[in-house]
Amino acid sequence: MVYNPAMHRFVRRLGVVPVLALSAGLMLLGVLAVDRIVNTMWPFDVTRIELVRATAQQRVDAAMLLAAANGDIIIAFLASVVVAVTGLALPFSYYLNKRLLPPEARHEPPSFLTVIRQALWVGLWVAFCLWLQMNRTLGVAVAALVAAVLILFEVVLQIRARAASVQQQGAP
């Protein structure tokens, strides 16, 4: 990729505005999709109407409900949650990356793909915890363990990216 100083100055001048615009767009898209799914789609098979009575009488468990659920609607709901939470986490990810850069690189914006990836990890974690809660298997230990695994993935990716940049700078 060719270095263009005018484009570089333009991107630096924009600062956080593109990230905030993308964040608002993703959050709006996700919230509208969740609203549409929750208000217009029936997540359970209509022929399993006895589950409504069993739920009211507290004779049904999570496994019975999920067995009768329409998997496509559940997946669409979780995907919409991922989009909404990614949009919500995007400014925080940008800010953390901006603050945690080395002092000599703080005047540069953080890598956009890294910011998106980190916000997506947060969205995936929230959707996974929501899915576990649907199954009634969510616990603090499980949520913390999954968060730790995702953080370790990100640390490994950051180490790999830094090693690649050091190798590029060292090559003649």
Query: Helical residue percent?
Result: over 70%
Structural class estimated from helices and strands: mainly alpha
Query: What is the 3D shape?
Result: elongated
Biggest sheet character: none
Indicate the proportion of strand residues. Answer: under 5%
What's the gyration radius in Å?
Answer: 21 Å
Total domains:
1
Distance between the termini: 17 Å
Number of strands: 0
* Residue-averaged pLDDT: 85
Based on the model shown, name its key terms.
single chain; 172 residues; mainly alpha; 0% strand; elongated
Describe this structure in words.
It is a single chain. The chain has 172 residues and is mainly alpha-helical. It has one domain. 76% of the residues lie in helices and 0% in strands. It contains 7 helices and no strands. It has helices at residues 5-14, 17-40, 50-56, 62-68, 71-99, 112-134, 140-170. Helix 5 packs across helix 6 (112-134) and helix 6 (112-134) runs antiparallel to helix 7. The longest helix has 31 residues, at 140-170. It is elongated. It starts with a helix and ends with a helix. The model has no long low-confidence stretch (mean pLDDT 85).
Can you lay out the helices and strands and say which pair or pack?
Layout: H1 5-14, H2 17-40, H3 50-56, H4 62-68, H5 71-99, H6 112-134, H7 140-170
Helix pairs in contact: 2-5, 5-6, 6-7
In a nutshell, what does this entry contain?
The protein contains seven helices and no strands. It has 172 residues and is mostly helical.
